[in-house]
Structure formats: C-alpha cells, structure tokens
C-alpha cells in the first residue's frame, strides 16, 4: 500500500514570496491533516479536512496560509507571503480510522 | 484543554541497555494514545497505539508502552536499545471526538556504543 506522498521535499524561498505544498493521502482515507513542525517542537495542527470539507482550521494563520482539498483526495497548502518564522517542516497526514499516517514532509526555509 | 508532556528533552542510552521514555497527558477522560518515531529528515512513523483494553501494548521494532490511568501516563519502553533506535520520539493524544492529534514536544534519543 502506498503511503502519504508529499512534494517537494525541500524548498528555499525569500521572505514575502509565495510557496505551495502538495499532498496525496493514502487511497481511501477520508481525513487529511496539515501539520507545521518547527525545529525542536512537536507537530502543530494547521488544518484538518474530512473529505473535502474543513473540520478544524482554528490554528491556520488565514491572513497568509490557505489550503484546499478538491474532490476530497489530494490537497495543497499555500503560504503567501512567507515570513521568516514560517521556516519549518510541513507534514501531511491521512487517516481512514483511528490512526494517522504521515508523509515525509516538506522542509521550508525562508531567507 | 488537552496537553501532552514529555519531560525529557534528550536522553542518552548505551547500546543494549533498556529504555523508558516518559509521557504524561492532561485530559478529562481516557484519550486514544500514540507513540511516533521520527528519524532525521523523515516523517513520523507510528510505533504503537492504545485505544482500550489491555494496558500494555506492543508495537513495532520491539517497543511497548503501558497506559496507567492513575498517573495519566503512557510511557514507552524497550528492553534492549539498538544504535538504529536513535531518533526523536513523540507522544500524542486524540480525544476520540474526531479531532486531530495533539503532540508532545518530543524526546531525542541518542545511543552510545
């Protein structure tokens, strides 16, 4: 069974630029999450989707971050404009029941 | 609000020695409990989980964890550590209400020879 796929693996951008991350969850998983993991900390939820609807986006900085999950399958997370403090690993996870499975993440560096 | 505490930021264990990583949670009822491992540059891999029933759960790679309701703890153990176990370990809770996992800050495990 294929796991959660994310791209790109690494991205370096200048502050005020925009960036987008892509995630393809495990086939059949209705729930998809985006987490932000800052160096030295645990992952923090940004947004949770159930199929193509948003369940929780309370911690998403909506002035600069946006996410969508068209057709309830793959998802994109966008940052525009990026700030230095957005440097982190962005993890996508999916769940078909009680356990969440994670992709390898995208490491974003904002300079 | 729910929270997860991993008191140890960094632990060093000799290869072949036993390991225990601590995890305490704050939640009114019994949540679902998880341990994940993250190797450098990798995503999180699920080691084991507790939902209900037997309080001692077995996971992959020889790990086990014990749920103690009275102590609100879910400590991870391994009887004999291998050099390949060096990684960061995260404890996480789920309040069973369909919301996302809440993670602790993690414990970095170093293995010395």
Pair with the biggest interface: A-B, 25 and 24 residues
Oligomeric form of this entry?
Answer: heterodimer
Structural category of chain B is: mainly beta
Which class best fits the helix and strand makeup of chain A? Answer: mainly beta
Tertiary shape of chain A = globular
Radius of gyration of chain A: 13 Å
Report the total helices of chain A.
Answer: 0
Number of helices of chain B: 0
Indicate the proportion of strand residues of chain A.
over 45%
- Report the order of strands and helices of chain B: EEEEEEEEEEEE
Write the layout of secondary structure elements.
The complex is a heterodimer of chains A (111) and B (113).
Chain A lengths: L4 E3 L2 E4 L5 E6 L6 E7 L6 E7 L2 E4 L8 E4 L6 E5 L8 E8 L4 E3 L3 E5 L1
Parallel strand pairs in A: 2-11
Antiparallel strand pairs in A: 1-3, 3-8, 4-5, 4-9, 5-6, 7-8, 9-10, 9-11
Chain B lengths: L2 E3 L4 E5 L4 E3 L2 E3 L5 E7 L5 E7 L5 E3 L5 E5 L4 E6 L8 E8 L7 E2 L3 E6 L1
Parallel strand pairs in B: 2-12
Antiparallel strand pairs in B: 1-4, 3-9, 5-6, 5-10, 7-8, 8-9, 10-11, 10-12
Looking at this protein, list some descriptive labels.
heterodimer; A: 111 residues; mainly beta; seven-stranded mixed sheet; four-stranded antiparallel sheet; 11 strands; B: 113 residues; six-stranded mixed sheet; 0% helix; globular
Description of the structure:
The complex is a heterodimer of chains A (111) and B (113). Chain A is globular. Chain A has strands spanning 5-7, 10-13, 19-24, 31-37, 44-50, 53-56, 65-68, 75-79, 88-95, 100-102, 106-110. Chain A is 0% helix and 50% strand. Helix content of chain B is 0%, strand content 51%. Chain B contains no helices and 12 strands. Chain B is globular. In chain B, 33% of the residues are buried. The chains are: A mainly beta (111), B mainly beta (113). The A-B interface holds A 4, 6, 33, 35, 40-45, 48, 50, 55-56, 91, 93, 98-105, 107 and B 4, 32, 34, 36, 41-46, 49, 51, 90, 92, 94, 98-106.
């Amino acid at each position: 069974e294929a796991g959660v796929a994310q791209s790109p693996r690494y991205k370096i951008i200048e502050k005020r630029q925009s960036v987008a991350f892509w995630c393809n969850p495990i086939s059949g998983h209705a729930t998809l999450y985006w987490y932000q993991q800052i160096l030295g900390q645990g992952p923090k939820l940004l947004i949770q989707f159930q199929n193509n609807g948003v369940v929780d986006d309370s911690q998403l900085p909506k002035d600069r971050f946006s996410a969508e999950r068209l057709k309830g399958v793959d998802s994109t997370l966008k940052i525009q404009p990026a700030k230095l403090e957005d440097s982190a690993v962005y993890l996508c996870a999916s769940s078909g029941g009680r356990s969440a499975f994670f992709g390898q993440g995208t490491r974003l560096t904002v300079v | 609000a729910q929270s997860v505490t991993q008191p140890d930021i960094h632990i060093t264990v000799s290869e072949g020695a036993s390991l225990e990583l601590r995890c305490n949670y704050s939640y009114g009822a019994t949540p679902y409990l998880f341990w994940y491992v993250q190797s450098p540059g990798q995503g999180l891999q699920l080691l084991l989980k507790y939902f209900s029933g037997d309080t001692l759960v077995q996971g992959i790679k020889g790990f086990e964890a014990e749920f103690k309701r009275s102590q609100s703890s879910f400590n991870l153990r391994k009887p004999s550590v291998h050099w390949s176990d060096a990684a960061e370990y995260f404890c996480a809770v789920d309040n069973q209400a369909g919301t996302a996992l809440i993670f602790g800050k993690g414990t970095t495990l170093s293995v010395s020879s």
